[in-house]
Amino acid sequence: MARTDSTGSTWRYRWAHRQNERRQRAFRDADETWRRRDEELRRLRTLAEDFTGSAAAGAGLPLELAGDEVVFWVLPAAQLVEVRHTAVLPAPDLTVAPQGTPMRSRRADGTRIADAGMAVITSRRLVLLGGRGRRDWAYGKMTGLAHDPAAPVTLIQVLDRRRASGVMLPADVAADFRFKLTLAFADAIEQRPAVIAQLDEAIAEHAQLKPFRPGIATPAQARLTGFVPGGRRTVAIAAGIALLVPVALLESDPSDPTSEVAVAATPAPGTPARPAAPAVAGPKRSSGAATPTPARDRLCGAPDNPMGYGFCAGERIREPAVAVCDHLDCVPEFWAGRGYLVQCGDGSVSLAGGSPRACGSHGGVRHTFRN
């Protein structure tokens, strides 16, 4: 037997089931994204702590090491790229930038492939052992360093060469190469603790972004709009029509004397026009009690909601009520947002106001809710 509430209906239970499934799905997606980033940050933190090299790691390489020089990392597949024109690269720094969009295996614009061979990161330099010879980039002579965000290309500028050059690596190892090169450079200038401190700060900030598990929707929270196909949009359209019909009837009221005069003043076809009789003033209608202000006018056009969130002047809403998604159509991963409450182009609401990605797949930002 189907479960029913006190009204004898089952749609409330179906509404609660759909709401809970949607909330859990959005939470799982946000939590998985957060965990992947957390694991990556902690992996980099461990690598920065344990990053060591040895002279033995360079055994068998056609590379002569200095007395205190050690090898940190060797990559057998690398290409030498050279910049076609003179360029000024930004000064090298110790910033650990997160990997954004996936890189494509292509060389950067304005560069050419000059050689191919093995890339070696040591405690003093980056070396490419190519088929045409060796190319060194000593940390002590490095004046510029740039990582292409869209291609697995790293360009370096040094004092003893006029044009910048660098290496292109397989896309799947480029991020690790860049981090290890940063660690090697930091070691050379005795600043590895600064990189570790930067990662500790990034881990602490990321921990504050951990998504909260959503509350459980109950059948008692279901609104009547959940029973109507199309939900609030259907109800809003029906309400708009219901408001327009009385206005149209009032404007065409046949008992209005001015309407009768207007009808009488219109001559029948073939009949000479007659002067219209003066209009007789009808009884003055009493205005009666003041008409309550409609909710959408009170909220400046915002969807009706018991929290009083509207589009009028006021403060932006950064911490909405827990039950906001019971009364407004929240986007997936709503609670993962870290901005203020906005309405998207398709009528849904998002908590990512202020971010350039807010309502990205929902028609863009239309309005900002205020309280």
TrEMBL record:
Residues 256-300 are annotated as: Disordered. It comes from the Bacteria. This is DUF3761 domain-containing protein. Residues 262-283 have a biased composition (Low complexity). The lineage of its organism: Bacteria, Bacillati, Actinomycetota, Actinomycetes, Micromonosporales.
